[in-house]
Amino acid sequence: MIVLQLEQEVAASPYFIIHHQELSSSEASTWVISGILGDGWYEGEVAVEIGACQGITFADEWFNRLALKDFFNRVDRDQICVALYQALASTDKGRTFNRAAGAEQTVPHYALESGHGLIGSGEPCWAAVA
Fold first, then answer.
1. Is residue 117 part of a domain?
2. Which residues span the domain enclosing 62?
3. How many domains does the chain have?
4. 20 to 30 Å CA-CA from 109: which of 36, 75, 91, 124?
5. What tens digit of pLDDT does each residue of 66-120 get?
């Protein structure tokens, strides 16, 4: 979970819970990070593109416009976008999503020492079995 830092005062801090990331199929140096964006009253699916191409897609622009509109009435859309870009541009102890091809492509946990309110679960409690 990433607690997003905004300039605006809000009743509840917005957060982003990453559930998937992959290299973009259309742009090799762009990561697509999917997750749940919320603030306690709203939760919605979001895809954030970081790297050569940047963009944010809010699924509720198609599926639940009213709930997304209510969320953006509480929290400024531009500030959410900036906070998502800043929080996701550098994760996992400094590894950036703008790195050259051939870099490590999986990030199972996120750095606790970041200034973006990242919350990590530490090392996994399971081991892969072949």
1. no
2. 2-96
3. 1
4. 75
5. 999 999 999 889 999 999 998 887 654 334 444 444 434 333 343 334 444 444 4
Q: Which residues of 1-11 are buried (b: 16+ CB within 10 A; e: fewer)?
A: ebebeeeeeee
Q: Which two tokens stand for residue 96?
A: 């950036």
Structure token digits, residue 28 = 């090799």
Domain annotation covers residue 105: no
Q: pLDDT exceeding 70 applies to what percent of the chain? A: 65
Instruction: Supply the pLDDT for residue 129.
Output: 52
Q: Looking at the domain assignment, is residue 57 inside a domain?
A: yes
DSSP string, the chain: -EEPP-SS--SS--EEEEEEEEE-SS-TTEEEEEEEEE-SS-EEEEEEEEESS-EEEETHHHH-HHHHHHHHHHS-HHHHHHHHHHHHHEETTTEETTPPTTS-----S--TT-TT-B----S-S-----
| Phi and psi angles of residue 91, each rounded to the nearest 5 degrees, phi first | -135, 180
